[in-house]
Specification:
single chain; 201 residues; mainly beta; Pnp Oxidase, Chain A; three-stranded antiparallel β-sheet; 4 helices; Split_barrel_FMN-bd; Flavin_Rdtase-like_dom; oxidoreductase; FMN binding
């Protein structure tokens, strides 16, 4: 018998076969999982490319390792096969336009996606986004191809902590923000960051 504070979960009926769930049902469920938004950059020079990713996860801290899931049909995936490094740029709340551009919402592709934003060159020729919340520069340790995607495992070789701002998150098909600085709160309510409730007394 269940404890009184535990409720049974009653799944909604779907048209899915008995042995599994259909693709749309899976997507609908995963949209309930709020995720940070990252731009993953790969390649150098005119071969620079990148994508917007929410499937980024820590794998281990000994050694520091993370994983990124990349669709094998993505225009940027060949660069992961060709280059041995990539950078994960954790986006700030005001970088939705950059997230859209690297997600393919505009006609920009390849190196054209880097037209906006301030980019810094990494030692191996790759680039990272200067105004991002954090950057993790990685060496490709392994690629594991499964179904439609590849799991790219990266050994983190350097990190940088950047903008002091809220982070961009994605939930239920929309962007949102988590974390607010005093200046961001002031602007949101129409105050100058230097006056009002956030000014020194």
């Amino acid at each position: 018998m269940l404890p009184t504070n535990v409720r049974r979960l009653h799944p909604r009926p779907t048209s899915a076969p008995l042995h599994g769930v259909d693709s749309q049902g899976f997507k609908d469920a995963m949209r309930q999982l709020a995720s940070g938004v990252c731009v993953v950059t790969v390649g150098a020079g005119d071969e620079r490319n990148g994508l917007t990713a929410t499937s980024v996860s820590s794998l281990s801290d000994e050694p520091p390792t993370l994983l990124v899931c990349v669709h094998r049909a993505a225009s940027s995936y060949p660069a992961f096969e060709r280059y041995g490094a990539f950078a994960v740029n954790v986006l700030a709340a005001d970088q939705r336009e950059i997230a859209d551009r690297f997600a393919g919402a505009t006609n920009a592709g390849g190196a054209g996606r880097f037209a906006g934003g301030r980019w810094l060159e990494l030692p191996d020729g790759g680039v990272c986004l200067a105004e991002s919340v954090a950057v993790l520069d990685c060496e490709v340790e392994e690629r594991i191809e499964r179904h439609s995607h590849a799991i790219v495992i990266g050994r983190v070789r350097r990190t940088m902590i950047g903008a002091n701002s809220g982070a961009l998150v994605y939930w239920r098909g929309r962007y949102d923000q988590i974390g607010w600085t005093d200046a961001e709160v002031a602007r949101a309510v129409g105050l100058s960051p230097r006056i009002g409730a956030f000014s020194p007394t």
